[in-house]
Amino acid sequence: MLIRLSLLLLTLLTPIAAQSKSKVIFERHIVPILKRNCIECHRAEYVDNNGRKQRPKGKVMFDTLANIKKSKRGRLFVAKDTDASLILDSITLPADDEDRMPPAKAGPPLSKRDIDLITKWIEQGADFGSWTGEAKTSGPKPKPSKPRTSSKKPRKRSGPSPIVTLSKGLRPISAAVLKSFEGSEFQVKSVGDGNPLLSVTCCGKTENVSDATLAKLDPIAKNIFELDLARSQIGDAGCLQLAKMPRLTKLSLRQTKVGNSGVKELAACKELRSLNLFGTATGDYALTALASLKHLENLYLYETETTANAVVRLRTAIPGLRVVSALDLPEPREEDATPKRRRR
Amino acid sequence: MSLRKIIRGADEGSRRTFLTGMAQRMLGVGAAASFGPSFVAQALAQDPQGPKKPIVLGRATAKHVIYLFMQGGMSHIDLLDPKPGQKTQGPNTPIATSADGIMLGQYLPNLAKHMDKACVVNSLSSTQGAHAQAQYLMRTSYELRGTIQHPSTGAWCHRMAGRHNNTLPGHVIVGGGADTPGAGFFPAEYQPVPIGDPDDGLKNAARPSGITERRFKKRLEMLKKLDSGFSEKHKQLSVGSYNQAYTDAVKLMRSSDLTAFDIDQESKSIKAAYGNTKFGSGCLLARRLVEHGVRYVEVMSGGWDTHSENFDRLETLVPAIDQGLSALLADLDARGLLEDTMVVLTSEFGRTPDIDEDNGRNHYPKAFSALLAGGGVKGGMRYGKTDKEGREVIADPISIPDLNATIAYACGLPTDHVLTSPSGRPFRVGDKGMPVTEILG
Asked: Which positions in chain A touch B103 (Cβ < 8 Å)?
């Protein structure tokens, strides 16, 4: 009887004791743990600085209250039920279990103190208090991952990727128009993640693509981000069509018949970052016109009629421009083809 | 299959292996046969055609992949992860490169000039220490099993992202290929086309002499007529796949893109710059294929299993790689193709830091290296680290699935997308690997 009574007392008293002693407050105690360990991978979809869409890993999100409730059908934290709360499963698995969170590669396991805090908060009723995670307290934007050992700074200019800036407010091309390209000379695809910007190639149909064919691209001209016309039959007249593509950042005219008068027209494509003129009749005259392309980063001029002087002038006009105008092959080896026999 | 046979096959397929390979890849036969009747029945019963939900491709920085596979186990300390001043370095002297803080082995002077374009990964580690198992893991991200054949990374790329050039194969293996996992459980049309000897190009791709186009057409029509009853009656995936393989082959025969396979179109000086070796020719062929729109090219090079006289053998092995790879990087760059093409140099494992009494180095999966360049890979960079003797990974470990997931990610493939095998089991490109985005610009 006495034992029973004391047991009863104990069960009655324990929660009260715990509560009065130390109440775990979500915003103050738990949010910092989540921010430190979880949110970088588990937050609502966003576009990183490289224009890549980053989705929440495993569709689990900790950045806002609404997202927490959405994740795992709201079973991440189940009030007063530590067995049903899925988060505790993930963070308490042994370190070598591949489902352990955070993954071994992403970071160290949570400390016992952190795990105890989360457990206690769940036992205490998993009260989120006034925290919603929206607006002012939305999770910190994960910094773009820094290379841990990089000996050279990338030569890319800073600022958000053109894929982000150029797709802003851009209307997607209708499905019907996109469908009309099926089986045509052009393969038309989103640049990725359903972005309205398009990547277009005529690879495999190069024989059928001439200046006149390019007119087919008119309905999608404003959305073209990358265009590969390498080895096609286009010439200078076709470049007038290309000048109508304001969002063109990458263009390959490799091994086509374009020459000075065509390339000159490309000065209208102000967003060009990469221009491939390998094996064309481009000369110095065209390079002068290209000097206005301030975003240009890579220009390929091997096997063209351009001269070193014109290239130097263009480099001065566009700081940071990389021009590839030579083929730097290794010297052939003497004893090739006859594998060395080591004999004594 | 004996080890020797695998290696020999890697260097230069025998006529028979080559023909079997050709039949397998071009015609899509063999994969099912090698698994016996039960597998065939399974494949026929289930239709994995078409993923359950549409694949949304991400932003691709790499439109092509050239995967250079050094079969046998390339010594990491002697090539990409030198340890100057340590006993494990052996007799060779590492050299400085065009990238600050990155050194390479003695026999890589040409590659050293291109290190501003490449990223060296020094923290790979594999779970497999035997050739067949380790090569399989490398190509598929999954462990070798008796019950299933997994698709290789190239087949995943082909299946998920499609072909750039619909008349050329999506995936080609140069220098062997008959013994590789190929399309695994994917339909036969995703099999890579094997090119046994890069100097010979694609064999049997012309009409037999004396057969006019008109006669050829007639024969094809007859074939179609003969087949139609069967195709109608058995509307199965593999039947469709066989037919597709025929259609593809005929399309290729008639295409001007067929010249992509012919490295004799290149000048003598270019060929000499690539090194006039099997590997060099393989690289040159890879460049031609990529230029014509092939998505994934693997070039195999054997002989790296240097259990004895490691240093003597590297003296001939490594210069061929140095020459071919340097020419490839320079040539791709001059053509503006390097920014779209990821070049990967790797092996199934490294070799022991300790040098044994035969002057050899043995299998070492615990820590080894790879080199990546182009296709969005940051240049002049080193990722991961081994300890001072090259024994243990001490920073940023990368598993084999991680490496494959990184390649897939650069190609815009969603690494969390699940495709099911004919037996209904779920698989992903790169298994559970996480892409290493730090090395991508």
From this structure: none
CATH number of the structural domain spanning residue B386: 3.40.720.10
What is the mean pLDDT of the segment spanning B417-435? 92
**Listed residue (A82, A126, A91) closest to A109, CA to CA:** A91
Domain count, chain B: 1
Domain interval for residue A59: 16-135
- Please name the member of B331, B335, B339 whose beta carbon is closest to the beta carbon of A298: B339
Q: Are residues A189 and A275 in the same domain?
A: yes
In A, which residues are within 8 Å of B327 by CB distance?
Answer: 329-330
Using CA atoms, how far apart are residues A266 and A292, in angstroms rounded to an integer? 10
Residue among A213, A137, A222 nearest A173 (CA):
A222
In total, how many domains does chain A have? 2
What's the confidence (pLDDT) of residue B52? 58
Residue B22 sits at the vertex; the CA angle it makes with B18 and B27, to the nearest 5 degrees, is: 160
Q: Mapping DSSP to helix (H, G, I), strand (E, B) and coil, where does residue B138 land?
A: helix
Q: Which of B1, B32, B33 is nearest to B14 (CA)?
A: B1
pLDDT in tens, A149-178: 333 334 445 568 899 899 999 999 999 999
- A-B contacts (CB, under 8 Å): 145
Q: Do A151 and B312 touch (CB under 8 A)?
A: no
Is pLDDT above 50 for B437?
yes
- Which residues of chain A carry a pLDDT beneath 50? 9-20, 137-156, 336-344
Q: What is the CATH classification number for the domain harbouring A195?
A: 3.80.10.10
DSSP A12: H
Whether residues A300 and B382 touch (CB distance < 8 A) is answered with no
- Is A337 a domain residue? no
Considering only the beta carbons, identify the residue of B166, B335, B402 that sits closest to A278.
B335
Taking CB atoms and an 8 Å limit, are A298 and B57 in contact across chains?
no
CA distance A264 to A286: 5
Tell me the chain B residues in contact with residue A151 when contact means C-beta distances shorter than 8 Å.
99-102, 380-382
The reply to whether residue B333 touches residue A340, judged by beta carbons under 8 angstroms, is no
Name the residue of chain A whose CA is nearest to B167's CA. A204
Chain A's closest residue to B409, CA to CA, is A52
A193 to chain B, any CB pair closer than 8 A? The answer is: yes
pTM: 0.75
Burial class (CB in 10 A: 0-12, 13-18, 19+), A337: exposed
Q: What is the pLDDT of residues B74-99, one digit of tens each?
A: 999 999 999 999 999 999 999 999 99
In the block, tokens 């494949």 appear at B43
Residues A320, A177 share a domain: yes
Q: Of A194, A324, A332, which is closest to B334 when you measure between CB atoms?
A: A324
Q: Which residues contact B81 (CB under 8 A, 6 or more apart)?
A: B120, B122, B350, B367, B368, B369, B386, B390
**Same-domain pairing of A176 and A45:** no
The answer to the question of residue A175 being in a domain is yes
A231 and A116 share a domain? no
Cα gap A251→A299, rounded to integer Å: 10
